[in-house]
Amino acid sequence: MENRIKEIRKQKGITQTDLAVKLGVTQGAVQKLETGQNDLSSKMMERIAIILNVKPAELLPKEWQSQSIEDYCRDLVTVIAIVEEWLIAHKKTLQPKAKAELISSLLEIAASESDSEKKKIKLTEFADFAIKHAG
């Protein structure tokens, strides 16, 4: 997933190595997070935002920030939590690639729908779909 971690990190004068140390990960892991090669979990996004002294929503691409991105992020985290809780309760798993695809699809819904009520309905429908098709 595209993000603004690298841009903001550089603006703050923080190196990948410095960020990696503060996160307790390798410099290579930070590089993969910045390029979207590694899944950026909501917890990791929150940790990075704290270190960079920004709101988590600011780490997302600028074009998504024109929407009510904080509301959307809250909805997105809720949908993912619902899916994860269901998976745990039913002793099922979602592979990392499938989780990344889930998040990507949810972000596409957010980017394509400007009406917040319709967006919530689509997110709920998507969570139901993901739960029904979990392996």
* Category by helix and strand content: mainly alpha
Integer count of domains:
2
Share of β-strand residues: under 5%
Tell me the distance between the termini: 23 Å
Summarize the biggest pleated sheet.
none
Secondary-structure element order, N to C: HHHHHHHH
Q: Mean pLDDT score, rounded?
A: 76
β-strand number: 0
Cα-atom radius of gyration: 15 Å
Helix content: 55-70%
What's the helix count?
Answer: 8
Morphology: globular
Q: Unreliable segments (pLDDT under 50, ≥5 consecutive)?
A: none
Describe what you observe in this structure.
It is a single chain. The mean pLDDT is 76. The protein has two domains: 58 residues, 434 Repressor (Amino-terminal Domain); 66 residues. With 135 residues, it is mainly α. The longest helix is centred in the middle third of the chain and has 21 residues.
Could you write a compact summary of the structure shown?
The chain is mostly helical and 135 residues long.
Properties at a glance:
mainly alpha, 8 helices, 434 Repressor (Amino-terminal Domain), 2 domains, 70% helix, 135 residues, 0% strand
Helix-strand layout with pairing:
Layout: H1 5-11, H2 16-23, H3 27-35, H4 42-52, H5 62-65, H6 69-89, H7 96-112, H8 116-132
Helix pairs in contact: 2-3, 6-8, 7-8
